[in-house]
């Protein structure tokens, strides 16, 4: 925000650098779940970029793709898809169809197709993006993670859970090699691995994956960080499925405490924690407490 104020004052409110900063602030808003605020920032950046570069530029393609992501998260899937298709075509035109940066737009388009159930189209976009980046960057570059993740989602949606798990493990190997063993992004992939292992009924392996993700988050993010709630929740769910309901309750209470502190007592993520807590209390035979959690 301070950089934006300085850029507007020293460069003028229509300078392209202002648009870049608007996009960066919008990305933070997206990460915090403030999709409407992010969309407004991306649209402001679009106006500046069209005035500066014309109706076709790689920078404009980036902003349009970001708008698509915000609209997708707001539930406006049709307009999101239209913007992602426009952004991918513009990236191919301005960067070249085989440029590794253009591949990212096709991955975004693949996610947009997945959101509306067009799985064949989604797979084609993710495979195209993966092939471009493998050819340009090699088979173990960290920029392969994004299209690999898209393909893992496609495989899982088709019921090919083993194939999805193999793609996630490939992502994990790449992330460990380039980011180290304690990077928070590694925890995200480990949680995905654990979630798929759970679907396959491999509960002990899944629990090990989620516990490792928790250790990484505790080391890299510190106690009380909102992302710890994800780990607590995953562990609690597996323990409940293993018949260890009372242990599960304690993990869900920890998750709820983090969410209420980080996001507030009325946030939807807090509601998710309350729901899991209620299910575990029900499984533990604590019916009155379960009712209170579920009603809240």
Describe this structure in words.
With 296 residues, the protein is an all-alpha fold. It is built from 15 helices and no strands. The longest helix is centred in the N-terminal third of the chain and has 19 residues, at 35-53. The radius of gyration is 21 Å and the shape is globular.
Main sheet summary: none
Instruction: Please tell me how large the radius of gyration is.
Output: 21 Å
**Secondary-structure element order, as H and E?**
HHHHHHHHHHHHHHH
Number of helices: 15
Number of strand elements: 0
Straight-line N-to-C gap: 37 Å
Share of residues in helices: over 70%
Q: Average pLDDT across residues? A: 95
Oligomer: single chain
What overall form do the CA principal axes indicate? globular
Low-confidence stretches: none
User: What is the beta-strand fraction?
Assistant: under 5%
**Which structural class do the helices and strands define?**
mainly alpha
């Amino acid at each position: 925000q301070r950089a934006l104020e300085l850029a507007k004052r020293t460069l003028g409110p229509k300078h392209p650098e202002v648009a870049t900063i608007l996009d960066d602030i919008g990305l933070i808003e997206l990460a915090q779940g403030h999709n409407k605020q992010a969309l407004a920032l991306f649209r402001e950046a679009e106006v500046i970029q069209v005035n500066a570069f014309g109706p076709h530029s790689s920078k404009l393609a980036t902003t349009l793709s970001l708008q698509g992501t915000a609209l997708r998260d707001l539930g406006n899937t049709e307009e999101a898809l239209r913007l992602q298709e426009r952004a991918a075509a513009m990236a191919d035109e301005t960067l070249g169809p085989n440029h590794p940066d253009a591949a990212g737009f096709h991955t975004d388009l693949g996610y947009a197709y997945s959101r509306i159930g067009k799985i064949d189209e989604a797979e084609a976009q993710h495979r195209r993006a993966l092939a471009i980046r493998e050819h340009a960057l090699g088979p173990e570059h960290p920029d392969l993670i994004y299209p690999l993740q898209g393909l893992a989602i496609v495989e899982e949606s088709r019921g090919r859970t083993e194939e999805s798990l193999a793609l996630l493990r490939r992502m994990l190997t790449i992330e460990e090699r380039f980011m180290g063993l304690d990077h928070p992004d590694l925890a995200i992939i480990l949680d995905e691995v654990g979630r798929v292992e759970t679907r396959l009924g491999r509960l002990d392996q899944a629990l090990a994956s989620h516990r490792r993700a928790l250790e990484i988050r505790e080391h890299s993010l510190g106690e009380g960080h909102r992302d710890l709630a994800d780990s607590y929740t995953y562990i609690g769910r597996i323990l409940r499925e293993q018949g260890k309901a009372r242990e599960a309750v304690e993990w869900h209470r920890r998750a709820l405490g983090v969410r209420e502190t980080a996001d507030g007592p009325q946030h939807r993520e807090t509601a998710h924690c309350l729901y899991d807590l209620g299910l575990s209390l029900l499984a533990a035979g604590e019916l009155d407490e379960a009712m209170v959690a579920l009603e809240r």
